[in-house]
Amino acid sequence: MRVLLAGGGTGGHLFPAVALAQQLLADEPGSEVLFVGTERGIEARVLPELGLPLATIDIVGFVGKKPVEKLAVAPKLLRSFRQSGAILDRFRPQVVVGVGGYASGPVLLAARWRRLPLVIHEQNARPGLTNRLLGHLADRICISYPESAGHFGGRTVLTGNPVRREMTEHRPLPDGEPELLVFGGSRGARAINQAVLACLPHLELWRGRLRIVHQTGEEDLEQVKEGYRKQGWTHAEVVPFIRDMASAYARAHLVLCRAGATTIAELTACGRPSILVPYPYAAGDHQTANARSLAERGAALMLPQTELEGKRLATLISDMLSDRQRLLDMAGAAHALGQPRAAELILDQCRAVARKG
């Protein structure tokens, strides 16, 4: 089967698509995949490292721009529609899968214009703008949360959110000295970075015993490194981006992070307890809905960004790391919410619409 995967921009959109490609190539070695994104998105850096092909179009985001800036997007939209059509004509996919993000819009429109079988995957409880606008064009809409169905008015199938193959190998919570994994998505999160530095003085009893692995994003890297150094936390690994997230999750006793849909899927697949700080400006506040779904089931603690300050964060981290049974219970609750067959279920829908097409 030839599958074109459209979208990206952030890890939350890209990594579910990577999971689909990995599952398809493992199940059907003769299959072909092609990603379509932009040169500015995370896909341009990650996909070559994974050996997965990428074609790019010239498009930028629409949300959050001023009216004059939105007008400037119009010529790019037309150009990217033409570029998408040329890519589709060359690759001749049997099915096109849109995973969200602004790069998926022109591809989905060009695919529908050519009457190609079309599947959309929505990762969040509250769908993003592109999927909401173009959902009516799809032959099938795969959703990760039951509450998403009401936004699409039919043709939805509950599949879950796929994670990369290396994440599906569940490992129990490790023994030994505790490790805290901190990240704020593929680009980092300044609010989390600053809060962690502010909490270090309140974690003095843990200094030398607690290992911290902290993904900061590129912009805050040097500032955060210096913050750890000044406070004597030499037992910390501070990096701009973690490429081997499966190993990072496997070593972690506790995770402090945002609540994007892909992060939630990875936490549940790996079975890791977490403190979730939803990004308050996410479209439709969908990260709060994501975080609440785990917190209500005992798999995580939700800490709103308005309440994110050093002493409070340090107390939560210390209390949780001091209670191994609590961590084990939360890890079990998280793993019970995992959906390890999500990629297979979405591919089943792709095969079904491809046969009809």
Automatic annotation (TrEMBL):
It catalyses: di-trans,octa-cis-undecaprenyl diphospho-N-acetyl-alpha-D-muramoyl-L-alanyl-D-glutamyl-meso-2,6-diaminopimeloyl-D-alanyl-D-alanine + UDP-N-acetyl-alpha-D-glucosamine = di-trans,octa-cis-undecaprenyl diphospho-[N-acetyl-alpha-D-glucosaminyl-(1->4)]-N-acetyl-alpha-D-muramoyl-L-alanyl-D-glutamyl-meso-2,6-diaminopimeloyl-D-alanyl-D-alanine + UDP + H(+). Residues 180-344 form the Glycosyl transferase family 28 C-terminal domain. Residues 3-142 form the Glycosyltransferase family 28 N-terminal domain. Pfam families: Glyco_tran_28_C, Glyco_transf_28. It is an enzyme of class 2 (transferase). It is a peripheral membrane protein. One of its GO terms (molecular function) is UDP-N-acetyl-D-glucosamine:N-acetylmuramoyl-L-alanyl-D-glutamyl-meso-2,6-diaminopimelyl-D-alanyl-D-alanine-diphosphoundecaprenol 4-beta-N-acetylglucosaminlytransferase activity. Its EC number is 2.4.1.227. Belongs to the glycosyltransferase 28 family. MurG subfamily. Cell wall formation. Catalyzes the transfer of a GlcNAc subunit on undecaprenyl-pyrophosphoryl-MurNAc-pentapeptide (lipid intermediate I) to form undecaprenyl-pyrophosphoryl-MurNAc-(pentapeptide)GlcNAc (lipid intermediate II). This is UDP-N-acetylglucosamine--N-acetylmuramyl-(pentapeptide) pyrophosphoryl-undecaprenol N-acetylglucosamine transferase. It comes from Geothermobacter ehrlichii. The lineage of its organism: Bacteria, Pseudomonadati, Thermodesulfobacteriota, Desulfuromonadia, Desulfuromonadales.
